[in-house]
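dumping these here so i dont lose them again. two proteins, back to back, each one seq then structure tokens. dont judge the mess
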Amino acid sequence: MSDLVRKVLSLAAKDVRCELRTRYALNALLMFAVVTLVVIGLTAGQGEHSSHMHASLIWIVILFSLMQALSGGFVKEEESGTADTLRVYAEPRVVYLGKLLLGLALAWALLIVLVPLYMILMDLDVNSISQFLLCLLLGSTGIAASTTLIAAIVSRASIKGALFAVLSFPLLLPVLLSAIFATEVVLRGGEWNDMWPYVKILIAYPIIVVTVSYMLFDYVWEG
């Protein structure tokens, strides 16, 4: 195991232990998702809804739940004073990759809870579970990749919540729209060829974001 991988896993393990101890992000993630789903279930009901509506509702809940949970990762480091310690003892690329792993873990944990609950509350029938899960995994990965960098940028700002929302929306719009359209194709029983253009964007988006973030994180973290 390379030294970089060992350091990244150590930092991610530290963040996971802290999260399991405080459950700050996890509780925020689950509570927001569950409350939103219950409200949607009570208001929309289990009647006939279009595939576009289902796809939009699923991704709106995923987006705002992840933004609620992942925005505080770097903020907690700054507020607790551990950010300066990280700057001294960990390379910027290690910090970024460690936080990215935590964000991905939270995003995928959300899917495990949210998707079955949504399918039950909204009586959603999915023809191709594998394609459905592919859209969910790729889309949530892209959202987690973007919000990790944005959270680092706004962590030392005075108005963190408003700035996070302002910066996030234009960056997340391509992955959000692609995820909605790809999910809609799956839910209406479309062919793989219909979904592939959106899947290509969902694959390329996190690769581009992670690559650019990895290259620029030194300036964001040390600036």
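---- next one ----
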Amino acid sequence: MSSRLITHWTDYASALREILPSLSRNLRIFDEDLSHTDLESPAHSETLRRFLGANRNNVCEIILRNPSPFRNDSPRLMAILGLYSERLRVFECPAQILTLHDNILLVDEKCALIRIHKDHARSKVILDDAEECRPYAERFNEILAECSTRIYPTTLGL
């Protein structure tokens, strides 16, 4: 059980690489546009695909303030969304909470990567400490309760 502060983007990316492999039940992300998570990379997207394919109970929930980059520049993630749309749920952040500037990434609600402000690398990484992650999981649940617009891999129409 440990936590540490990080202040550089390289440390942020390193922390993400450190906690993603421990993914076993759920991944929950509240982020601006996923650009700093590098989930679109071959390695991270493959980790996510394997995770979702490993067990029917595995779930990934993502809430985006700006979903345009996800829709337009994330072919790997969109393909995974097409395969596992019942377990990979992506939401567009509603207007009333667009002013929130922090970012939350929770792995099994025992590891977390919390960015203080969407534009800065200053973050806190929490390793194997469910108690320390609890307030962030509760915050994520509160944000998720406000979301109703879901993003799908295809455009729905008549």
